[in-house]
Amino acid sequence: MSVDAATVRRIAHLARIAVAEQEVPHLQGELNAMLAFVEQLSEVNVDGVEPMTSVTPMEMKKRHDVVDDGEIADEVVANAPETQDHFFLVPKVVE
Asked: What are the residue ranges spanned by the domains of the chain?
């Protein structure tokens, strides 16, 4: 897969990056090099290879999934114009 100059301009437009016309050929080469590297990686046989989080075997740290109020309910509603029992009060908009 290769990227042409029009695609470089479109990518720059979508990313909201100002790219001068003289920079387009350089960026085109850079993008094509990246895509070539990704294509090269797809040729590697990874059957039977487990995903790793580190180069040394380790288990990811996990926290207990516990539901709580975070103990900061007062801070959460502190800037609200009106509250009641740690809930935001809003005007009724549907009758």
From this structure: 5-42
